[in-house]
Amino acid sequence: MASEDFCLPGDGMEELKQVCSKQLPPCNLSEEDLLRNPHFSRLLLRLSQQVDESGLSLTLAQEQAQAWKDVRLHKTTWLRSEILQRVIQELLVDYYVKTQDTNLTSEDKKFHETLEQRLLVTELTQLLGPRQEKEAPSLLGLEKADLLELMPPAEDFLWMRSRLPLEVEQQLKRKCFTLLCYHDPSADSDSETLKAAKMWKLAEALVSEKQQCLDTKSQQQERAVLLAKQSATYSQVLLRCLALLQRLLQEHRLKTQSELDRISAQYLEIKCSAMVLKLRMEELKILSDTYTAEKVEVHRLIRDRLEGAIRLQEQDMEKSRQVLSTYEVLGEEFDRLVKEYTQLKQATENKRWALQEFNKAYH
């Protein structure tokens, strides 16, 4: 297929869209953009033949793959030694735990003590490392020869080394069975033979599950990119819809606003009248519940009596006004007579009181 055909609709366009979505970074190019720029489309196709899916050149990708292969090889070698080191340390830890609970045989004690002694001396020897003549003396003045003297006897070491693979195998077997039961709890009740058979397939199952997780993660990333594109597209559509709605509101709202205001005013007026009538009805209901016919009759009698008493008081008040008017006509002479009458009345009261006291004292 000619390069000029890739910028036309058809298989070339589909291949170009796959190149843009997989091999090259997401550039969010539409079919219209690719058709509008045919030279750029041919450039993308030629560029895709020189790079892989990650965007690296083919030569650099091969070098990277070889480097990763070497890294995995060294990592595998290191992991093997590290696993063996940890398994030996776990054997020693289990030994010290068992010494607290059970009585171990002399062979077990000899094996673990020889193993621990050999391990400690080897680690200390490695810590010293190769020394140069001009270097400063080591810590505490120790030399490798001093540490090698602490090595266990050769016979004990050979006997321990012949037994060590079996102990390591048993420890690894227990750890593998623990891992299998964690991955498949139903295997806890199986026999050792069946567990061993399942262990051979455990690695394949873990690799399959890991690949499934990676595929799911890749699908999730693709969906996230698709979701971002759709979100951007939908956002633009929503913005256009909002602009259209705003324009429609501005054009048609002024025409209908007065009618809406009139209807709203009528509605509020009717609602207010209804509320006033409801309040009056509640007031009348309270009055009817409070004042019965008997209570109204009693209140009427009380009101009549009070009105009669008020009329009598008004009549007495009118008579008092007339008497006061008569007294006011007399003027100052009347005031002098009142004062004299008051003094005489007070003197009479005093003499009456003195006479009563005299009579009490006489009797």
From TrEMBL:
<dbReference type="Pfam" id="PF14735">
    <property type="entry name" value="HAUS4"/>
</dbReference>
<protein>
    <submittedName>
        <fullName>HAUS augmin-like complex subunit 4</fullName>
    </submittedName>
</protein>
<dbReference type="InterPro" id="IPR026214">
    <property type="entry name" value="HAUS4_met"/>
</dbReference>
<dbReference type="InterPro" id="IPR029327">
    <property type="entry name" value="HAUS4"/>
</dbReference>
